[in-house]
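User: I'm writing a tutorial on reading structure tokens. Could you give me a worked example: one chain, its sequence, then its tokens, then a sentence or two explaining what the tokens reveal?
Assistant: Sure. Here is the example chain.
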Amino acid sequence: MSSSQSGSDLGESAVVSVTEASQVGEARRACAAFTSRLGWDETTSGEAALIVTEAAGNLVKHGGGGILLLRELQGDGRRGLEFLALDKGPGMTDPDQCLRDGFSTAGTPGTGLGAVRRMADEFDIYTATGCGVALLARLWPRGGAQQSSSRSVQAGAVQVGAVSAAKAGEPICGDSWAWERRARQDVLLVADGLGHGPQAADAAREAVRLFRAHAALDPLEILQRIHAALRSTRGAAVAIAVLDHDSHSLRYVGVGNISATILAGGETRSAVSFGGTVGHQLRKMQEFVYPFPARAMLVMHSDGMATSWHLDAYPGLVMRDPSLVAGVLYRDFQRGRDDVTVVAARAQD
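And here are its predicted structure tokens:
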């Protein structure tokens, strides 16, 4: 098993490679480290272990191996866990049939996916023939309503999902991202520290710290504050987006190789970023405003992911949970030679 840790807006995350049956137990132990840190009771920890066991097992049995992503969530004073299982196998021709207990194509009892759906507070699958499977589950500690209250899931005017992962072989991700809510607006940041490793992570986390401290300002002013603060670091590529739900617009400012794409009404539009390194050399900073109607989606990502992606190749994915969108794009378009962060946000009204 190979794994890496990263920080994100909603807590720690981990990426676990599962390519053979012996690694299912290792994935379960990685999950146990999360539930221990979250302080979950034995019952909920056991449910999390079962979800990971079934999801990781399916990666091996049906997908020929794949990736398991664990991400900490926060909401209403509780901390939950998100599971994404991604493979590049043949996909499912009939997901509903696969979810019925007793159905199996691998000679197993056929209760795995059905059990995951029953235990999870939220569950979804995206699959298309030849496009593999992306499985999403979220679990929250018991002792209250079992519906998720995380901002990443139920955020009123916006839904947000993300994947942030270190370059293979690196213990820490040099990218980071953040999300702040203000009245009828959601503000997002993606930061990519120059290079990779601990010093890159320091730069990205400092960008997040400044973003949080000044999130009430206009995006251009926030970026100027970050630029001044990052002079003592190796610098970063940084982009900030403000989703305004009253004007149905997106205000955007970016410097460096952070890509941002707006998907609305079957059309795509790229937001403009200028060259340079925040904290060091800047050629120009300028805010741009774009239409962002209801149900539009914004995808922001660092240059660890290729820019050649098109959601047209994934029928129906654009309207699914943003975590599924981020996961599929990460699975299929990560370059493999750098840290990668991809954030997907959809306007709800």
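What the tokens reveal: The mean pLDDT is 88. The domain at 158-347 is CATH 3.60.40.10 (Phosphatase 2c; domain 1).
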